[in-house]
Amino acid sequence: MIVRPRKEDHLVIGKYTGKVITGVGLLMVVPMITSIVLGEWDTVVDFVISIAACLIFGFGTQLLCRTEKDLSWSHGLVVASGSWGMATVLGALPHWLSGHEGTYLDAMFDVMSGYTTTGLYLLQDLDHVSYGLNMWRHLLTYAGGQGIVVIALTFLFKGTAGAYKVYVGEGKDERLLPNVVQTARAIWLVSLAWLGVGTLALFITGMALGQEPVRAFLHGLWVFMGAWSTGGFAPQSYNTMWYHSLTYEVISVVIFIAGSFNFALHWAVWTGKRKEILRNVETVSFSITLTLTVLIATFGLAKAGVYPDAMTLFRKAFYQLASGHTTTGFSTIYSRAFVTQWGPVGVMATTIAMAIGASACSTAGGIKGIRMGVIFKAFMQDIRKAISPESAVVRAKYHHVHDVYLEDGLVRSAMTITIAYLVLYALTAIVGTLYGYDFLQAAFEGVSAASNTGLSCGVTSPGMPAVMKVLYIVAMWLGRLEFMSVFALAGYAVSIVRGK
Amino acid sequence: MRHWLRLVVAFVLGGALVMAAGCRAQGTPEPSPNTPSSSGLVEEPKKYDGSTVTFTGEAIGEVMVRGENAWVHLNDDAYYLKNVEEGAQLGGYNAGMPVWLPAGEAGKITTFGDYKHEGDVVTVTGEFHAACPEHGGDMDIHATALEVVQPGHRAADPIKPGKAVLAVALALLAGALFAANRVWGQRGEIAPRVRKG
User: Fold this and answer.
1) Most confident among A92-96, A277-281, B85-89 (mean pLDDT)
2) Which of A98, A312, A340 sits opposite B42 (nearest CB)?
């Protein structure tokens, strides 16, 4: 029997959703200040409207939904996914007001892409957008990478027991420290330390490459945000090809690979356990699958004779594949070049890399290395069982911060989410094909959206059918929150109308 | 079942409203001045690899000087004469080509396109590389000379009065709700827990 939510349930969900949206409104102050400093007055007005809309929703719901009840697990999941949905609707206001989006749906697509650290976009004439709007695009992806709920946890929640349930609802389940708010702050500590060092490195390189100081700083900051959050947004339409620099590429690769690692791994290294990098199942899995996909792409590109020498070939192949595998979406080739230069083998290798993705509890998307590792270990365990004497006890373990023995529940959980991802990938590919796109290209783009990567081979465009835009928005949302929270929100909607 | 139907109908109507309300009027976007255009070069890189092309476009962003040469980026998209702030029709993504040329030639460009500027429209002639061996496999044009066809200008984007009024009204409402929340909204908050030592 489905139980209809009671008034208290609506109140607690409304209250905490309001808090998260208030946080989104406060986040918009940063791009507004950027526009004030740089004299972009029409953009300032856009942000005043948008901030006010968020605060009206946030304060309004908190005023209407006064309750002392704390969050339950289902509330946490609904608040996490509901907040992302509402934050997308209201966060799209600056995009829409800028006049650079064809429809409000396009604006919501870009914002969901930002929050989910995907990097696909439908914004038109990016090369003429204001610094304020560019700051908002990149801040969205940086905040989305840490988790907008993490932001709210850090600044707006006052240590409620239910806070952990919202945190888990956002697709994160590592508790680095005993208290979830402390964990959220630890994530910020690591991220802000990287922000300082990464931005400085890119700023100095940008200056050396011939950029003016202000542009070098802003580009450094934004490229860092795009890399660290594995978001893939860049300030120019040429993406990272804009810089024509090996140094810039190397720095961005280091940042996005670091950004794709599990926060628990970062915390282990931060607290002195450096050997964890070499032993962790996710880094081992990532190294193996990245090497394999780079080899496949290199083989295809060498055979087609696309690049003039081996060094150039490796540079291009490694950058796009590492970017795809970490679900970043930075690219030093044109989107259409995946089709017109790389061909089917290159497209296939990149699609596989994107589908696997990087680490759990990070800013990255996709199936995740830990699930690949668990499934592989379980597979090997079954083979060992089959060839061992009946009386033999075969146990397998993997290392993730500490040694974990494989249990059926763990394997089933990994398989369930993996199958959910595969179904989503297939659905986006089939719908794209039904709309007349080549299957391989539709699969590339669908996997890119659902794994929150953001590489494009040209399918995503403002002229894309609205149904595909909606499907990609949902795919990005499902992929980032790893299904359960969005399913909980759907269940909540069903229980309102059908519950007893 | 009726509840289900109502939910589905409300969802579809709401979605349609969002899409319809958000649609901007579309006109005819500015076509590329080039044959082949940058999109044409990207679509058929092998066909044009090594050939001499004449390419016209808006200088975007900045010049990046590297020794005796420099990088500029020329856009030949729907916004190369007028950008969105000046009322250009939305015509899809930006499109263009990176150009590698002598720094002295690049110095002829005085205005680069960004939010506040429409950049100089310039023409270059040079060799197209599908995967440049000198520049890490980038697709680019190596030019020797540059001509400014149309000087750039400042692109004004004044505050729209309607938006300003809306901003003030919404800000006042947000302020009022903040005050109301301070007065009445705290009653439902959970008291901070006291740690027992």
Assistant:
1) A92-96
2) A340
- B63, part of any domain: yes
The domain tally of chain B equals 1
Which pLDDT score is estimated for A465?
96
Strongest mean pLDDT among A171-185, A278-292, A358-372, B111-125: B111-125
What digits encode the pLDDT tens for the residues A206-239? 999 999 999 999 999 999 999 999 999 999 999 9
C-alpha separations of A318 from A324, A341, A353, B47 in Å: 10, 16, 11, 26
> Which helix (H) or strand (E) is A55 found in, with range?
helix A41-64
Q: Is residue B99 part of a domain?
A: yes
Question: Which of B184, B195, B178, B187 is CA-nearest to residue A68?
Answer: B187
Confidence tier at A400 by pLDDT (50, 70, 90): confident
CB-defined contacts A:B, below 8 A: 226
Task: Annotate A286-301 with b (16+ C-beta within 10 A) or e (fewer).
Answer: beebbeebbebbbebb
Among A472, A446, A286, residue whose Cα is nearest residue A368: A286
State the Cα–Cα distance between residues A218 and A180, nearest whole angstrom: 32
Residue B195: pLDDT over 50: no
3-state secondary structure A362-387: CCCCCCCHHHHHHHHHHHHHHHHHHH
Average pLDDT over residues A268-281: 87
B78 and chain A in contact, CB less than 8 A: yes
Report the DSSP pairing between strands B140-150 and B96-102: parallel
Percent of chain B residues past pLDDT 70, beyond the cut: 80
Q: Which residues neighbour B151 within 8 Å (Cβ) at sequence distance 6 or greater? A: B110, B111, B120
Domain that holds residue B87: 38-154
In a domain, B4, yes or no: no
- Rg (C-alpha) for chain B, rounded Å, is 26
* DSSP codes joined into one string, A197-242: HHHHHHHHHHHHTT--HHHHHHHHHHHHHHHHTT----SSTTGGGG
Q: Is B85 on the interface with A (CB under 8 A)?
A: yes
Separation of alpha carbons A122 and A469, rounded Å: 9
Q: Which of B93, B184, B188 sits opposite A237 (nearest CB)?
A: B93
B89 in any annotated domain: yes
Q: Does the pLDDT of residue A163 top 70, yes or no? A: no
Q: Is the predicted ipTM greater than 0.90, yes or no? A: no
Tell me how far apart the alpha carbons of residues A29 and A485 are, in angstroms, rounded to a whole number.
28
Q: Is the pLDDT of residue A421 over 50?
A: yes
Residue B73's CATH number: 2.40.50.140
Query: Where is B183: in which H helix or E strand?
Result: helix B161-184
B 100-159 → A contacts, CB under 8 A: 113-116, 130-131, 133, 135-140, 155, 157-159
User: Alpha-carbon dihedral of residues A182, A187, A190, A191, nearest 10 degrees?
Assistant: -140
Looking at residue B186, the DSSP 8-state letter turns out to be: G
- Domain-by-domain residue ranges, chain A? 1-173
Question: What whole-number distance in Å separates Cα of residue A45 and Cα of residue A40?
Answer: 9
Beta strands in B130-192 (DSSP E): 140-150, 153-154
B82 to chain A: nearest residue by CA?
A128
Helices (H), A123-179: 131-146, 148-155, 163-169
What is d(CA B157, CA A99) in angstroms, rounded to the nearest whole number?
Answer: 11
Residue with the two structure tokens 């939305």:
B90
Within 8 A by CB and 6+ apart from A157, the residues are A16, A19, A163, A166, A181
What's phi and psi for A34, nearest 5 deg?
-55, -45
CB A169, CB A79: distance < 8 Å? yes
- Separation between Cα atoms, residue B60 and residue B75, nearest integer Å: 7
Question: Measured in whole angstroms, how far is the alpha carbon of residue A267 from the centre of its chain?
Answer: 20
pLDDT at A261 over 50: yes
Give the pair of three-digit tokens for residue A294.
């780079």
